[in-house]
Amino acid sequence: MQQNRRDFLISAVSLGGNFVMGISEAGVAPEAEAAWDTDSANGTEFTPWIKISPDNIVTVRVATPDLGNGVVTQALMTITEELHCDWGKLRSEYAEPRRNYMEDDVYSKAVVRYDHGFFARSTEPKRMAILLQAGASARERLKEAAAQAWGVPRAEVEVSKSVLTHASTKRTLTYGQVAAKAGAVRLDAEPAPKPHQEWWFLGKANPSRMQQPLLVNGSAVFGIDVKVPGMVHAALMQSPVHGGRLKSYDFEKIRNMAGVIGIAVIDPAEIRPPIGLRRTPYPIESSAPQSGIAVVAEHYWQAKMALEALPVAWDDGPGTQWNTHEQIVDALSEAINKSDTSGKVLQSRGEALRMLESPQRPVEAVYHVPFAEHAHMEPLNGTALVTAQRVDVWHPSQQGQQAHIVAAQESGVPPENVHFHQTYVGGAFGRRTFGDDVRMVVAVAKKFPGRPVKVIWSREETMRQGRYRSIETARLRAELGPDGMPVALHVRAAGAPGFFPRYLHDGPLSAGLVEHVHVETRVVPIHVMTGPFRAPGYNSNAFFSEMFVDECAAAADMDPLDYRLKLYAKWPDPAWVKCLTEVSGKASWGSKLPKGWGRGIAIANYGMDGKPMAGSTVAAVVTVEIGPERQIRIDAVDIAVDPGRVCYRDGVTSQMEGGALFALNLALNEQLTVANGRIVEGNFHEYPMLRLSDAPRRISVHFGAVSGHSRMAWVGESPMAPVSAALGNAIYAATGERMRSTPFRLQS
Amino acid sequence: MAIQLTINGRKQTVEVDPATPLLWVLRDHLGMTGTKFGCGLAQCGACTVHVDQLAIRSCQFPLEAAAGKQITTIEGLSEDSSHPLQKVWIENNVAQCGYCQSGMLMAAAALLKKNPQPTDADIDTEVSNICRCGTYTRVRAAIHQAARLMNA
After folding, report:
1. CA-CA-CA-CA torsion for B48, B53, B54, B58, nearest 10 degrees?
2. What is the tens place of the pLDDT at every residue in A156-197?
3. Which of A119, A128, A145, A239 is nearest to A193 (CA)?
4. Which residue is closest to A663 within chain B, CA to CA?
5. Three-state SS annotation for B108-146
């Protein structure tokens, strides 16, 4: 990899730039922001990832938006491993998608999956390698510049905490002092980053996330907080029935309301320019515009009041065929009951269907989960300034590269003239990935050229215009062998268009543990839109699978832990048994509980895709108390995780704790229903969330089963299914009744 | 109509429809965006501020009701992030995305003001804010730790 400072300078002056995350910014003054190429008084760029300024600040460009998962802190830690920065003198800013576009995918092309360039984790292996190399190469250039200044061999220069030292002559220079010279140094050979066995910082340091200081005093700038001079505000309403069209509206009724400036109609039928030859991270269709209308006013509250007063009529379209939620549930049941060949076969091995025609020791269960909304705390929003020549967008995206291209296509302005400014993100969980939100923002703002427009979805609009975790019904059937272990498995699952089959066919049962397997899926043409949701597919299918394993254990008359130890011992990844042993020991599995209490266990792996020694394995024990009125109180959660190696321990711990709560809430509380084609639930009184009062008092994350395998897999998704399945299994242990559909609180 | 407010100790006059929720006056008219919009129905608590030392949800609190009162927002919790809650929040790596944390901190600060040694049950009652990232166990531990610091 060529690490010499880039031999060309970009002459374009960027209005853009990004939020410097270590520094508080009250507002966005475009002229105050630097161009991305900064070989200037502001600092020297060593690679597109690292800039060092004369005041000895090392700035790291991070492509992956931090959603609260610690990816920015992780990236700074990775750079520090080789560059030996003073942690207090590190800053980060988001890498620019526009630069990525104009400089041959400089931030995304070397990453394993193209769509992960501006997405997902900082520990993606190629990204780790890039950052470690960038840190090592910058370090050696700094050392060489200091060596030349002192007339000593480079090998005699030491680095620590952003300071270069020549020990024998007691001379020191800061990185900032030699940065300009170091940037011009050409090395004969690039240094090799040290092997992970020699890491001194990664896996050892455990800092607070670097954004914490700005999050506790309100100065972090989320998308909804952006201020641009001359900015106006829009309240948005889209067809209440997904896929419907705006029929009519009467602007005259609101024209004279306080602050009202105008309206913007978003028409999906409007011709949008095709995307050129360049790839988008995700299909551009996944960001398709929805028919809608927005009221633009001086202030948001005025816009919202006027939108509520605006007479609007909709052509609801075919979605109204679903009058009641029961019709949808029935259609899914019908789909899994049909024994035709209409579905898609994802996995077929051996004679599963034949064996299950006349089973000797059958286990069978039907599971169901409803549509679920991400319910990130920051409602959907964005700000855009569109002119014929140039677009600026400020937005809390989960994938800035996608958002950049979507903004270009929606505005018709070429991507090289679209400046995308990543903001802080108030939760995402998959919702802000495809860029349908940024499209609607630009679609509104382009109707007011030259004027910055901030578009805010109300909570109700956010919730009813989601891209939900799909509703799904699945039948699992197994034949148990003489030892109680499954020898044949048949899975038939049905969901809305776009539902994720992950783990039905590539979990350990289907991928190898069971000899005879048949897995098929059916899609029911429901109009409600779906999308990725924390651990797509896994949060439903691994949940089903691990509650089904519990039913198999009961049918085999075995303890749920013993059954799993025996079952997963055959999976060629010893961490599964280790995680089960670790978590059961820590949770005192088998010890006596008071009457009405129960303990459940489950284990699954996110990211394995059918393979051992991949992804993150999580085993969980949930302890519950069932009250006299059948109230479910979760007492404690224990988790043992194996992501391979752990770089940032408290980052992983936080993700396990948060993932556990997310999983518990999903299983206990969450459900969207449909009436007359519309999503019924609109706010938190109808879509309840766990709070301090009903959250478990204790969530303990155990690291005793970490395998040390070379991968550093994703972690945030992995608790989603084991924790919810362990909850279901704990309720069974306490009551003797199986919970097979969520939300559990409605069933109990 | 001009309305006088005292925000974080500073007198300010705003010319805004008196029915406007205090939240939007703070955010849109005064540019104080530390107070967050989460639900608009006083359900989630992201918009929590203090009015005369009581925690209120500003999305359902009309401007006119705040006239002449002492309002404290997250920007005024301390001058320099030195409130014990802010310190232990950073130290314990509490926030994930952080969006709800302004409101969480303001709810916790109001609780500690009237009850310097809260029990778990007190916290359950007084800090009912929603955090979707799931920071509750750390929030609870941090409130107890801040209480110990303040009583030391």
Report:
1. -30
2. 999 999 999 999 999 999 999 999 999 999 999 999 999 999
3. A128
4. B134
5. HHHHHHHCCCCCHHHHHHHCCCCCCCCCHHHHHHHHHHH
DSSP B4: E
Sequence-distant (≥ 6) Cβ neighbours of residue A15 within 8 angstroms: A30, A31, A33, A390, A392, A419
Q: Across the interface, which of A301, A685, A699 has its CB nearest the CB of B28?
A: A301
Tokens for A315, please give them.
């052509």
Cβ atoms of A293 and A249 within 8 Å: the answer is: yes
* Inter-chain residue contact B97 with A378, CB threshold 8 Å: yes
Q: Which of A68, A379, A456 sits opposite B96 (nearest CB)?
A: A68
- Residue of B38, B81, B135 lying closest to A658 (CB–CB): B135
DSSP letter at B41 equals: S
Of A658, A690, A695, the CB nearest to B96: A658
Q: Do B134 and A378 touch (CB under 8 A)?
A: no
**Which chain B residues touch A67 with a CB distance below 8 Å?**
97
- Are A243 and A319 in contact, with CB atoms under 8 Å apart? yes
CA distance A252 to A21: 44
> What is the crossing angle of helices A125-150 and A71-83, to 10°?
40
How close does chain B come to A257, measured CA to CA in Å?
12
Asked if the bond preceding A743 is cis, omega within 30° of 0, the reply is: yes
Encoded amino acid at B68, one letter: G
Amino acid identity, position B132: R
Mean pLDDT for A199-224 is 97
Annotate A546-583 with three-state secondary structure: HHHHHHHHHHCCCCHHHHHHHHHCCCCCCHHHHHHHHH
Determine the distance in angstroms separating the CA of A534 from the nearest CA of chain B, rounded to an integer.
Answer: 11
A217:B93 CB<8 A? no
pTM above 0.90, yes or no: yes
Q: How many CB pairs lie under 8 A apart between chains A and B?
A: 182
Cβ atoms of A559 and A553 closer than 8 Å = yes
Considering only CA atoms, give the Rg of chain B.
15
What is the H or E stretch that residue B86 is in? helix B84-91
Contact B108, A633 (CB under 8 A): no
Give per-residue pLDDT as tens, B24-77: 999 999 999 999 999 999 999 999 999 999 999 999 999 999 999 999 999 999
Partner-chain contact A219 B96, CB within 8 Å: no
CB of A303 closer than 8 Å to CB of A233? yes
Compute how many other C-beta atoms are within 10 angstroms of the C-beta atom of residue A327: 13
